[in-house]
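Crash report, auto-generated. Payload:
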Amino acid sequence: AQTVTQSQPEMSVQEAETVTLSCTYDTSESDYYLFWYKQPPSRQMILVIRQEAYKQQNATENRFSVNFQKAAKSFSLKISDSQLGDAAMYFCAYRRFDMRFGAGTRLTVKP
Amino acid sequence: NAGVTQTPKFQVLKTGQSMTLQCAQDMNHNSMYWYRQDPGMGLRLIYYSASEGTTDKGEVPNGYNVSRLNKREFSLRLESAAPSQTSVYFCASSPVHYGYTFGSGTRLTVV
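Recovered output after restart:
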């Protein structure tokens, strides 16, 4: 079974600075998809960014970018110019057919 | 608004009571999912339905049943609720290989 590990239960960043959230996963497959989801206090799950494993180019979405290292099975999320609204739980997820999630990282943004 | 609609948003049950969580999507997705979210454990897959008429067990199916009523609707039933089923439940739908669209979640407390 595929597993997803987020080794940082909590992270903190100063407003306007950059923070990187870590994620590793375990799989024997070569074709799959990786995601980062944001869950603010409202509880809603919001898709932040998506990466196809067959693409070498790292995905970017405005201030959010990933560092995808397929051989190392690593998929970190970088948030640049952090804003107060970025404070949330962040979940890394792996998908081949159904989606499997890490335990999450709680991000605090300090003004 | 297009999306995934879950009802109810909150529920308190007594041990041994039964209930059904309802989920409907209007995006014409084939695949639908039920997850539970517990502190420190991320989201864990309970059941999924790859297409109308099919359902399969996920990681934590014990104590639950599901029905894929039609392409739009996918319900989750607790036949005899237990305190261990206290959790936040999410329904989701997606096309293949894309991210999920989640419902807003149901906070269930079993006393």
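Post-recovery validation: Residues 35 and 50 of chain A are 5 Å apart (CA to CA).
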